[in-house]
Amino acid sequence: MADALQPTASHYVNGGYVDDVAGEEMPVIYPASGKTIATVHAATATIVEQAIASAVAAQRDWAHLPGRERGRVLTRAANLIRERNRALSVLETHDTGKPLQETLVADATSGADALEYFGGLAASLTGEHILLGEDWAYTVREPLGVCVGIGAWNYPTQIACWKAAPALACGNAMVFKPSETTPLCALKVAEILTEAGAPPGLFNVVQGMGEVGASLVGDPRIAKVSLTGSVPTGRGVYAAAAKGMKHVTMELGGKSPLIVFDDADIDNAVGGAILGNFYSSGQVCSNGTRVFVQRSVREAFLERLTERLADAVIGDPLDEATSFGPMVSERQMEIVLGYIDKGREEGARLVTGGKRLDRDGFFVAPTVFADTTDQMTIVREEIFGPVMAVLDFDTEDEAIARANATAFGLSAGVFTRDLSRAHRVIGRLEAGTCFINSYNDAPVEMPFGGVKMSGVGRENAKAAIEHYSQLKSVYVRMGDVEAPF
Ligand code: NDP
How many Å is the maximal CA-CA distance in the chain? Predict the structure, then answer.
């Protein structure tokens, strides 16, 4: 990796890079080669303390700036990210293994969109004026204080920006802990925010495993925790935050349904299923991994899908022609291969893929199982890899009931040419983020998040403001106070 891209130390605290080599060494492994490309240290208690203390100090003054001044910093950061998109995308590819073809359009650019959007909103954050006869009341929209962001490994730049942008726009500071698997990208976000004018301490990045995250969540100076991660981690972090009655946003996992009716445009439905299962090698929380296909079009769907999967360009993620890369880590590859074995053992029909590829790095072939049933492990559990389960169905009611028969509720999609049916079905699906004749679009203007076990709160859009601010209500009496004695 080019040296210019390398962050210069493990953590970013109080406006600059810092390190403490007493922290455990964490190798950064390039998933396409299996080779170590950098080493960072987990944050020690000293680093965590410096990060929180500097965030507390920075937040006080930041909250008192006019919204438009806060917004200007975020907008400048968005512009810097766009100017450096290629270099940041190359770094994202090294951190995650995702093909450059994807990272050039889906990572730093999505982060810039969030910074630009919330930068634009910052000046418009206001309370209300409420007339009460002679008296009146007003509300003030205030920041929460210091927020903690904890990221998963699949979208390290995007997750850092999706959390930082609304937090900072509302007048909060943030301490962010990336996943130990992908520690590099968030450091660059911090560096760019400083360059854009963010005061020292406003956005800090500390590395480490779960314990470092837990020490941040448990600190009494932290007002809010926003986690992107798995359901078991979310449950633990939510419980820890509850001890201090902290605000939370939980963006967790899913096992989302994608329903293809017999009147759908099959090519578009196949395209949606490809985006919803194989983009980022399937490592996307909102993926539509349970693909319900109406029985009469099942074979046509599978045939077209297999043809199109043969066109996947699997290889060096830094080659812009590559459209499918490795899993993020050896561990994740082993988990996915374990699920593939389970699919075979439990009697699913392997249509394509189903194996590790014979090359360096953690590559698993795009895999499709058909003849799957709702009881199979690969249909019930989140795999977080390139494994699609195709299920047959006959009626609309049946598809809806089976789609909802899961503890998750992140996303859902419907492909049909009948628009009444599309809205009717979406209306009955238990999911927070839905798609009609599309899949996995995540523009910053649209709220994103899950219901049921998939999460609490929303990221993006105006909805995120509610999760990074609180209202102070003020009653104003204009006349005398009447008291009973
Ligand atoms: P994990 O849940 O394992 O980890 C998420 C983050 O939480 C990591 O930074 C992890 O640290 C940290 N963490 C772990 N334990 C604790 C703890 N006790 N206290 C505080 N922090 C802790 O998820 P993965 O990184 O494996 O990511 C994959 C998961 O994320 C999938 O299940 C996926 O569905 C979900 N996801 C959800 C998204 C959404 O928006 N809904 C988007 C993307 C992913 P470390 O790993 O360094 O130990």
Answer: 86
